[in-house]
Write a structure and sequence with these properties.
10 strands, alpha+beta, 4-stranded antiparallel β-sheet, 2 helices, 23% helix
């Protein structure tokens, strides 16, 4: 798995990778919770161009899971659920720690404000899912069904 520091990139970041019929994304950051937030930004940025200065509303929830990889999957599934159920996209996300998992504080905007630039993810694949610390912070890799 790649981290930004290993390639001379910013300590925070994300990128999409080619994957047959799906979307593979990697993210990296100094902490686990920041890495999860980068993964959300990467997922949304893979299919939506959000306008600068768009207005948003705050939504909060908590997510828990039995391990870090499944926690990442649960957070991304929460975003997918909100996109589908409420037609909202996160303009930004904060991921504060919470007992047994993380809290999520989204700034959400109506999806009609975005320009679609790619296939919208429908689910998170558990195969190859990882979220782990490394020598330069945390990194994750996830495959999304599109």
């Amino acid at each position: 798995m790649v981290t930004g520091a290993e390639h001379g990139l910013s300590p925070h970041g994300h990128r999409s990778l080619p994957h047959t019929g799906d979307l593979c994304a990697e993210a990296w950051a100094p902490t686990r919770d920041e890495c999860i937030a980068e993964a959300v930004r990467g997922m949304v940025g893979s299919f939506a161009d959000l306008p600068a200065g768009a207005s948003g509303v705050t939504r909060e929830c908590a997510v828990s899971a039995e391990d870090d990889g499944r926690l990442l999957a649960a957070v991304l599934e929460e975003v997918i659920y909100r996109m589908d159920a409420a037609s909202e996209l996160p303009l930004d996300i904060a991921v504060p720690p919470a007992p047994g998992g993380v809290g999520l504080r989204f700034t959400m905007t109506d999806s009609s404000a975005a320009t679609q630039i790619g296939a919208v993810p429908k689910a998170v694949t558990l195969h190859g899912l990882s979220l782990a610390p490394g020598s330069h912070g945390w990194a994750c890799r996830v495959t999304l069904d599109v």
